[in-house]
From TrEMBL:
Positions of the ABC transporter domain: 4-243
Name of this protein: Monosaccharide ABC transporter ATP-binding protein, CUT2 family
InterPro entries recorded: AAA+_ATPase, ABC_carbohydrate_import_ATPase, ABC_transporter-like_ATP-bd, P-loop_NTPase
Spans traversing the lipid bilayer: none
Pfam families: ABC_tran (PF00005)
PANTHER family: CARBOHYDRATE TRANSPORT ATP-BINDING PROTEIN MG119-RELATED, SUGAR ABC TRANSPORTER ATP-BINDING PROTEIN
Superkingdom per UniProt: Bacteria
Natural source organism: Bosea lathyri
């Protein structure tokens, strides 16, 4: 049984048909690259999975159970986390504070309830060690590299025991070394049985870390292939329309 299964997903915004009958299945521990030009429907599809939009038509199943995510918190409760391109981090806070933002650990001292910083630093350190990241819990985010910032955002998804992580352009605008760090973090998630959907325009990243590539064009899925049976040239053709389907 797939972890996530989409059947006939369509989305209309008035007269605009952003998605047209999308079928997609993703297994636990699978890394799927989602590619397409601007306006292809990638973001709309991900927002439906993440609970930002309800589909106009079609059905979404998680672990074989039909789901109707009306808010992002509904998707998060069921184990679907999103790492957005801007990461949504607070630069003036530490790595640990960002990991626990909105989910802070607390303890009671008599009648008072205070934040348990010691426990949060310890748990954040465990998560960074698990991800084999050099990020330290007390480091300020504003002083971090792009790769370290991604580690903080991904550690936040691990705190919630995610089943699936949706990653929006995680390697955009960072150095070659930091790209390698982020791709390694994706491998760590895969090793722990977490499914990853990687939205990216970077062909080398998709072909180095993904098991499959899904290509969208004008709201339709035009390809869903194992990486081993495709090529960057074919995917480029599918994105541009030089190749109609594969």
């Amino acid at each position: 049984m797939p972890l996530l299964e989409l059947q006939g997903i369509s989305k209309h915004f008035g007269a605009i048909e952003a998605l047209k009958g999308i079928d997609l299945a993703i297994d636990a521990g699978e890394v799927v690259g989602l590619m397409g030009d601007n306006g292809a429907g990638k973001s709309t599809l991900v927002k439906i999975v993440a609970g930002n939009f309800l589909p106009s038509e079609g059905e979404l199943r998680l672990d074989g159970i039909v789901k109707h995510f009306r808010r992002p918190v509904d998707a998060r409760t069921d184990g679907i986390e999103v790492v957005y391109q801007d990461l949504a981090l607070c630069d003036n806070l530490t790595a640990a504070a960002n990991v626990f933002l909105g989910r802070e650990l607390k303890r009671r001292i008599g009648p008072l309830v205070i934040l348990d910083y010691k426990a949060m630093y310890a748990r954040a350190a465990e998560l960074f060690k698990e991800l084999k990241s050099e990020t330290r819990p007390r480091d300020l985010v504003k002083l971090m590299s792009g790769g370290q910032r991604q580690a903080v955002a991904i550690a936040r998804t691990r705190l919630a025991n995610a089943k699936m992580v949706l990653m929006d352009e995680p390697t955009a605008a960072i150095s070659v070394r930091q790209v390698a760090e982020v791709l390694d973090l994706i491998h760590r998630l895969k090793d722990r049985g977490i499914a990853v959907v990687l939205i990216s325009h970077r062909m080398p990243d998709v072909f180095s870390v993904c098991d499959r590539v899904v290509v969208m064009r004008r709201g339709r899925k035009v390809a869903d292939k194992a990486i081993a049976s495709s090529s960057p040239e074919e995917v480029t053709g599918l994105i541009t329309g030089a190749i109609q389907a594969a």
